[in-house]
C-alpha cells in the first residue's frame, strides 16, 4: 500500500481511460435508448406539420377546436408513394420508406433539372415522392404534398394542402427555412398563411398560376383568384415561394398525379 503512487503516469492514464470508457458507454447507451423516442417525436412533428398545412390544427396548439389530437386527426390521412413522372401510385413501395429529400440527392433515384425546368432551384427532383390523402364518402377531401424550393438564404421545406377539388389551396406551411425573421421569415406569420386559403391553383389550361403580388387585382377580376400578398421587403423569398408552389403542382412535380386523380384514374 505504501508504494502506491496515485500521481504516477500509469495510474493517471488508467483513471483517464476508465472515465472515458464509462462516459462513452453512458452516452452511446443513452443514444440507443432514446432513438425510438426521437423517431416517434420526429414522426409526430411531421404529422403536426401536415395537419397545420391542411388547416386542421391550430398553429399554437396540438389539439383541434373539436378536441381531437394529432394522432386522431392524422388517422384520416393515408400516405401513398407516387411516381412523379407518370403520376401513378407506386403501390409496390411502402410510403413510410420514402424520403423525397434524400432520394433527390441520389442520381439513381432522381433526375437532374435543367435551368429552364428548375424554377424552384432544387437542382434534382426525386423520382418517387409521397402524398397524404384524406378520403371521405364522396372521394378525396384533402391532398397534402411535400414541397420545397430556394428562397434567399436557403431551401424552404413545407407542405401544400389542396381541397378535394384538387385546384383550390387549403393551406401552405413551412417547417424548415433559413429566411430572415421579420422579412422572408414572415412565411411563418399566421396572417400571411391565412391568405393562401381558397386561392385557385390552375388556370383553364391546367397550368399552375399562383401569383404573389404587391397589390391585389380588384375583386371580380379573374386574376384575383390566383393572387396572394407578396411579403414586404422580401422579394426573393416571395419569388421563391411562388416558384416552388408552381413547380410542385406543375408537370415536373405532382401535376401528372393530380391530373390522374381528376380523371378518376
Ligand atoms: C440582413 C438582411 C436580411 C434580408 N433577408 C431577406 C429575406 O429573408 N428575404 C428576402 O427576400 N429579402 C431579404 N433581404 C432583402 C433583400 O436583400 C432585398 O433587398 C429585398 O428582397 C427587396 O425586397 P422589396 O423589393 O420588397 O423591398 C434581406 C436584407 C438584409 C440586409
Provide a count of the helices.
6
Instruction: Please estimate the helix content.
Output: 25-40%
| Strand content range | 15-25%
Radius of gyration: 24 Å
Order of helices and strands: HHEEHEEEEEEHEEHH
Question: Major sheet: order of its strands?
Answer: 2-1-5-6-7-8
Decide which structural class fits the backbone. Answer: alpha+beta
| Global mean pLDDT | 94
Question: Are there runs of 5+ residues with pLDDT below 50, and where?
Answer: none
Find the count of extended strands (DSSP E, 2+ residues): 10
- End-to-end Cα distance: 85 Å
> What is the domain tally?
2
| Dominant shape | elongated
| Small-molecule components bound | flavin mononucleotide
**How is the main sheet built?**
6 strands, antiparallel
General description of the model:
This protein is an alpha+beta fold and 265 residues long. It has two domains: 46 residues; 186 residues, no CATH class. Helix content is 31%, strand content 22%. Flavin mononucleotide (FMN) binds next to helix 5. The site of flavin mononucleotide (FMN) has 11 residues, from helix 5.
Furnish the topology, listing elements before pairings.
Elements: H1 9-53, H2 70-74, E1 77-83, E2 88-89, H3 100-103, E3 110-112, E4 124-126, E5 128-136, E6 139-150, E7 155-163, E8 169-176, H4 190-194, E9 211-213, E10 227-229, H5 235-248, H6 255-262
Parallel strand pairs: 9-10
Antiparallel strand pairs: 1-2, 1-5, 3-4, 5-6, 6-7, 7-8
Bound molecules: flavin mononucleotide.
